[in-house]
Design brief:
Helix content is 39%, strand content 18%. The protein has 328 residues and is of the alpha/beta class. It binds ligand PBG. Ligand PBG binds at residues 120, 122, 124, 132, 171-172, 207, 210-211, 216, 223, 279-280.
Amino acid sequence: MTFPVQRMRRLRRTEPLRALVRETALNPGDFLYPLFLCPGQGIRRAVTSMPGVFNLSIDEAVREAEEAASLGLGGLLLFGLPDSKDEQGTGAWSDDGIVQQGLRALKQSAAAKKLVLIADVCLCEYTSHGHCGLIVPTADGHDVDNDPTLDLLARTAVSLARAGADVVAPSDMMDGRVAAIRKALDSADRTHTPILSYASKFASAFYGPFREAADSAPQFGDRKTYQMDGANLREALLEIELDLAEGADMILMKPAMPYLDVVHAARRRFGVPIGAYQVSGEYSMLHAAFEKGWLDRDRAILESLLGIRRAGADFIVTYFAKDAAKLL
Ligand code: PBG
């Protein structure tokens, strides 16, 4: 049966018809909203490269959480900007770290009952050198030392879980960190705390604006010895397989838009819940086009998220979470 009997336009004629045959849906509950916590009171410091994104003191973050809950968002992903940084990233794992304090405050709010509070586990916002692990000298310079870093990541995860994180999300890309974190959580009586592993995280130019938001740019070198090469799909699937074998409950892939084939391949291969992170650069480049009047803001926001869902992501970390929820 082909044209003129078959006419694809028949089912596109009215909005109710289009709605009836729509294959992919967006729901506010699928969106996770990143927050950047900073010390102080009453602080909402704009991140210049990310219009609409702020560094928030904890009181302001609680207000954001209330708005997020009232919009029906799925949850929050928490990052921290500590008072001071050092070589070991002490601010990440100390029990009075900024995210730990934020979690305790958020847990007191009514919003916390409606939101999943996810704590990012990494050292880069807390180290003076801006790398995601401990630095060791090598024959040709410096490198991030994998195995000693695992202990610090595990301590970070336990401390965040104790402070109230519903889920911990390691984003450092050290080998073996999921197993180390699972073991540490279990021995700290946190067998019920899930791990959302950033299983395939590519070394990407699209993290640029985040590094302003989180003040986490590496002070020397880059992250190519631990984050993945953007050319590699098979390797991404192996990363996921290994993280699942180590005990990851859910996986997160990032960036999203330039890597939708990876999301799709993971969806076909693995049964676990999959999230995709529409990262800072994806957000900022769309914003730049909105500001120039080159793209229709509302339609482009929803279309960008729909594409990520259609590729196979169950949930999306996005700086557009509130905007998209309002549009739906
Ligand atoms: C920390 C981390 C980064 C992002 C999330 N967790 C930065 C990086 O790896 O440099 C980027 C998120 C974004 O760009 O929105 N390791």
